[in-house]
Amino acid sequence: MSQRGLDATLPLETRDTAAPSWPDQIVIERSADKKLSINKGPVELRELEQRLREIYQDRRDKTLYVSGAGSLRYGDIVSVIDAAKGAGVTRVGVITYGMRRAAAGG
Q1: What is the CATH number of domain 26-103?
Q2: pLDDT tens digits, 65-95
Q3: 75 vs 20, 65, 80, CA distance in Å?
């Protein structure tokens, strides 16, 4: 077994909403049943890298936010980040369960 590192950006404060609210931001969500969506639109994991490549092709800002259910395993999120990196995304922000809970007021 070998180890591999991935760069990720974690926001320092959690006062804002769990997912960025700016219309030009791209957010991938992975639900507890492992379904994926890009900005609320469903996508299959096997199609993810190509879809992201199309989305980011002409974008200057290559930032992506990833939000996953708290019950998911590490590998379930790493596969999303790996597809994003393969598609040319240069910055990945991870939205944690704690950040979502804090944004919801809990």
Answers
A1: 3.30.420.270
A2: 999 998 999 999 999 999 999 999 999 999 8
A3: 23, 17, 9
